[in-house]
Amino acid sequence: MTAVPSAATRSGTPSRLLSGWRAKFVLLALIWGMSFLFIKVGAGALSPMQLALGRMAAGALPLLAVVLLRGGRLPTSPRLVGHMFVAALLLNTVPFTLFGYAAQLIPSALMGIVNASTPLFGVVFSMVLLSDERPDRERVLGLGVGFLGVLTVFGVWNSLGEVTVSDRDSAVGMLFVVGATACYGIGTPYLRRFVAGSSHGALELSSLQLLLGSLPLVLLVPVFTEAPTGLTWQVVASVVVLGVLGTGVAYVLQYAVVREAGATVATTVTYVAPVVAIVAGIVLMGETLTWNQPLGAVVVVLGAALCQGVLRTRHVAPPRRRA
After folding, report:
1. Average pLDDT, stretch 3-12?
2. Predicted structure pTM score
3. Can you tell me the distance from the alpha carbon of 133 to that of 28, in angstroms, rounded to the nearest whole number?
4. CA–CA separation, 129 vs 2, rounded Å?
5. Which residues are within 8 A (CB) of 307 and not within 5 positions of it... i.e. 6 or more apart?
């Protein structure tokens, strides 16, 4: 069995930002940040459950093909498969579907703001599930700074003014997003405690996770949804790209980051991904850049650097008393 580091290396320097697990972290943030574009296109013709099933199937099939071509095998241990099924529900089936329903009720900016709370849920549940991931001062400070950065990026003072919280649909939509982020916050430390320490590689584990996560939707979609109409090649291509990159490749990267850096650090990708989404919207969709977005992006990167140990605060020793 390959030895698995128990937590993130805390002695990083800026020159190591793109080395080791940090390169995977940056790539994961880029992929998930770009995924918002493909979700927007796919949601125009598919129901939330259909979109969730489509992205998981499109992600699972290529990974499974690679596993078989390499002569690998999916895990068969009943205990591990059971833990994988729970992880799939928490990290795929439930949150993917909840975000789809939330998008029908509240603005996407508000969804992004609430989704940025994932690392905070991650810290809480990591303290419960992982004895070796007690947050130190840098991580707590980094989480707080990163969350402030995300609020700045989205201009929370403007976004919240557009939503009537007392409206029943808005309240339900926000509860959907809170439920999805709570699933991510629980699922990531659960993954590290019960799955990431196994002898199986990230490719095999990711393939099995997506297959198991698809099973409930395979049963539910024919019963609760109607056949989609108005499918275009753009919709199909978006779901395929969303599945292969945003779900398949992304979960291989996530397993690697969780194993090498820990669950708390892995959840901070949700701080960086919204910044990528905003930049992609400006470059690819012609959206307007406001002053708060680049400022918030800088704060987000600072928070992530603190949480990951790239930057450290100085510990000032108390003055000695004279005899």
Report:
1. 40
2. 0.73
3. 22
4. 22
5. 119, 138, 139, 142, 143, 146, 264, 265, 268
The amino acid at 316 = V
**CA distance between the termini of the chain:** 56
Residue 303 contacts by C-beta under 8 Å, 6 or more apart in sequence? 142, 143, 144, 145, 146, 147, 148, 149, 268, 271
Q: What is the pLDDT of residue 9?
A: 41
The set of residues, in sequence order, having a beta carbon less than 8 Å from that of 284 and lying 6+ positions away, is 37
Q: How many CB atoms lie within 10 A of CB 82?
A: 12
Residues 46, 57: Cα–Cα separation, whole Å: 14
Q: Given pLDDT bands bounded at 50, 70 and 90, which one contains residue 218? A: very high
CA atoms within 13 A of residue 201's CA, in its CB half-sphere: 10
Identify which of 43, 165, 20, 29 has the alpha carbon closest to the alpha carbon of residue 99: 43
Tokens standing for residue 234:
């753009």
Q: What gap in Å lies between CA 231 and CA 245, rounded to an integer?
A: 21
Q: Which of 248, 247, 198 is nearest to 73 (CA)?
A: 198
Rounded to 5°, the CA angle 184-188-192 comes to 170
d(C-alpha 131, C-alpha 70), whole Å: 36
- Token pair 């109409």 is at which residue? 229
- The token duo for 94 is 């439930």
Residue 135, both tokens: 């947050």
Q: Which H or E run includes 112?
A: helix 108-115
Q: How many residues does the chain have?
A: 323
Which DSSP symbol is given to 132?
T
Residue type, 209: Q
CB 88 within 8 A of CB 200: no
